[in-house]
């Protein structure tokens, strides 16, 4: 745990609020799914909130993220609106993706969210491309300062992925490419100890995925993924290097998912003592204690934050429930920008 | 028009030069356009298509990449999603297999999955077909894999003039476009206008007028179809050769107009017969233009085999002008069987 002295109370409280927002968003989503409101998959982020919140706290308005199948936490941390997220999960027209994507594909480029992704590792090369665009923005800023793309000249791209994805070729190809071109990309591996149902020791021979950075001559850092301030500190450092033009960093965040791989998976392949250990290391519970111990907040203030989150989510659920279903023929829209009078659809 | 510009208008370029000219013109036009690919920079590409572009536009814009197709296509897509148009080269379209997630799961579907709220102005140049004895992993014609994937536009340029005009349209298109270039066409020459012209996607072209049979052909089958038409003309058969130029979008009206004239349809294709795009064209004609047809449709295709190495085996596999001509005669006289595999 970190010293709190170097942070403002408002910043520290916002980290707490964001983590609670994610936790409660996910718990409610699971419940709403069991009630039949959500037709598709859910991969709950519960337990890993400190990673998304700590990392996104280090980002600015011109930064971009790519996310994963377990993406709700990243999207909320990056400023996603729970109303449009629930509407998307409910497959309603007001969803971020107008009911075409669902949980696995929520995106909003304006918010810097290039998307959750249904393919393990699929977002990593895309973040490298975002890094390429951001590097180009530095040139644009020099030669064409009035071009709107010049504004993102200090931007970085963050790609979140898991321990499982670190075995994909996409990860290795992308880290090599980003290192070679010194792109402003931060590779954040959330090592939650399981690739789907398979424990880490059965899917790779290393314990510290950060060591893979050495193959590409980039820094490999390890953060306590259940400590939001540690994640913030490490990712801030990586972002600072990237913004200076020093290229990518691989950040491994050690964490754990409290639930199964997806909603409905009971996760019985995990030893009870392991689960108990990590439940004790709950990032929200411990951070709450820290805020109280450091006299940043009172119990009443924290309760007020919790209640505000409940209120926000209550309204978000009501918004999603009221949102219309898409008309069936909307299935034919959005394949192309330019469909040549519909001929491109035929 | 001045005498000079008229002379320029009549100049003849190779297909490779025409592609290079399209790339250079579009890079001039949009200073943010990036090129990515293996060996496209200093070496100028395995087939020389990008020669001189690195020297002209610099290494910030002509990006030689590692041999990492998945990362390269993903990077091109990521940049495109942020509003930076990109042209990535797949040195041999066979290697697209290594980038299938980024092409099929990501690029093709990004706009749709996001409810129309994103756009990816990305072109993937797919170097396709045989180059002669290039065997099973450097010769495939995989266009039908991608026409079967909604969200991708698929262009097949068969002449230098079309290559320039279609590539410029593809680059300006806000959607992902796969641009198939045939290796054996790179050195073919043709008149290429010097001006800044685009050929819209979705408009086929009558490559030779005729009245007895419509012969559909694209990429390297086009010059072979034209040779077959020439041979058949000496037998008194008038063949209309029609090049769709783009497979997605496909110019149904163009096909219909030709069938209204001829009432007979032969389709030539280098790719294996099974599930090839020729099957789609045949199905369109059978479903929608059946009343226009006076004879059964004939496909003249590659065999359902991997591409062999030996020249005599390769020649057996890919339709030549003789086999295409035999297909036309079969449709006209319904008597002579086409050669094996045809």
TrEMBL record, chain B:
GO MF, one annotated term: oxidoreductase activity
Residue stretches making up the Transketolase-like pyrimidine-binding domain: 13-188
Gene3D superfamilies linked to this entry: 3.40.50.920, 3.40.50.970
Cofactor: thiamine diphosphate
Record keywords, A-Z: Oxidoreductase, Thiamine pyrophosphate
Any Pfam family matching the protein: Transket_pyr
Keyword DNA repair part of the UniProt annotation: no
NCBIfam families: PRK09212.1 (NF006667)
Protein name (Swiss-Prot/TrEMBL): Transketolase-like pyrimidine-binding domain-containing protein
